[in-house]
Structure formats: structure tokens, C-alpha cells
Amino acid sequence: MSVTPGTAIPPWAMSDIDPSRMKTMAAILRDPYPVHWDRDAVAALGLGDRVINQGPLNLSYITNMLIAWQGPTCIRRLQVSFGRPVLDHDHVIATGTVTSIEIVDGEHRATCDVRLEREARPVVTGTAVVAFDPSEPEDH
Amino acid sequence: MSMVSEAEMLALIGHRFPGGVRSIEHWENWLLTDCTGREQLPDHLVHPVALFHVPIQGAGTSIAELFALGQVDGAGSVGLDGYDWEYFQPLREDIPYRFAGGVIDVQRQLDERGNTYDRFVFSIDLATTDGKPAARITNHWRLRR
User: Which of 3.40.50.2000, 4.10.520.10, 3.40.50.150, 3.10.129.10 is the CATH number of A8-132?
Assistant: First the structure.
């Protein structure tokens, strides 16, 4: 499949946000914010009893989509904004669409609108710049 | 507790982190990648989302220290507004990278409900130890007052 403006990036889904991964992530990040592992802390905010996924994990689903599309070293830039939180056991899906193509220092790059959605509502939105080989079919 | 003054927050602009040299170990990258729900990357490549915590730690600070710098604590006091991450070369495990950065902007603003927050922006550059640029991150946090 060629990469042109309008090309849809194959979606990448996380079908069940696992709270145990948030605990591991909190340790890796050395993130003291208790809303990622302590349900009481979330409840104290009036946000229910489900822990909140880390923003970087939400972004990682978008990066996983891009890597699956154009390979593990394809990402050149990510500019994203965060909206509503993602909670444990949510189902989220990353999607994207190519908006423009350019060649920089001989490298083909696609600028893409990207988003992560929960219940068809965006929770992360932004732009990614991705390098691609115009002679290669996507097979990653 | 009284609200930190706007002048006090604006004085943070230009604050520099200690900086330093850090590598990303295999165990750390393995667990990080596993948390994202995908299989491990080939060739000792580091997962791209490492650009959240690795620059913060490599620059000689921490999430907790950044919270303290912005005078916030407790659940609900910090939100993510956005990231701008640039990748100049693939990051790999066990390669030492040099980190330098600091606070580049602070703006006191009101949210859509009229609540005060500080838009807190910091940027960190990553380079190889021989000076080749590797990545740059600019993170925008919302410090609620």
C-alpha cells in the first residue's frame, strides 16, 4: 500500500487496560502520583473507583500503531495533547491518517493526524511525523 | 494553604536541571515495552515512550522533584497538557546519553471553569557522549492551584 495523503494507518487496539501494568509503569517512572495504583486516591477525587492510566502509556499505544505500520525506528516527532483520562479495563484504539508527505535530507516522511479513542471519544490527539520507505510495502 | 504567587512561579523560567549521563538498561526497556502491550523491539532498540521518564531522570531530577519545584502535591494537582518529542536517532539500550535541560516557560492561566493553574513547560535535550543530538522533549504540565 502506498503512503499518500489520506492513507489510513492500520489501527492498534488495547482491548483491556491492565491495572497491574500501571503499577509496573509507576515503578519504572518513579511516579509518586497515587491515582495510578491507589483506588482510594481516585475515589477521593470523585472519579470513581478505577485507577488512571499514565499519560505516557496512552501515548505508547499510538507509538505502537506507528511502529507496527512503518517499523521500530520510524518515528521522527510526536506532538500530542491529552484529554480525558483512560481507566483500568477500558478499551482504547489508536488510529491515524496521513495528511502530507515531504522529503527531508532524502528521507520520505509522512505527517499524520493521530488519536487514541475511548468509547469513540478522543483521549489523546496530535500529530506524528513518520519516516517511510516509498519502495517498501508495509509488512511490519 | 495559600496559593503560590505568580511571581514565584515565573521565577522558575530558566531554572536548569543538574544534567547528567544515563543509559537505558535492558531490564528497564523490557518492562517498559511490556507495559505498552507489544512485543519487544529488535536490535536493542528502546521503546519510543521512554522519552517520558528517561530524560527526566537523566537530567538529574524526578517527577517528585518537579512536583516540588512547581509546589504541587496530592492527587488531582497535576495534569498533562501535551508533549512535543523529537527523535533525531533511534535510542538503544546500554548506550550512555548526555542530558541537559530546564524550565523554559511558565504561564498562569484559568481553565474553562475559572480555576487557576500554571502551565509549566520544561525541555530536555539528549545527545550521545560525543555530542550527536539524539532527541529533544518538551513537556507541558498543568499545575492546578
Answer: 3.10.129.10
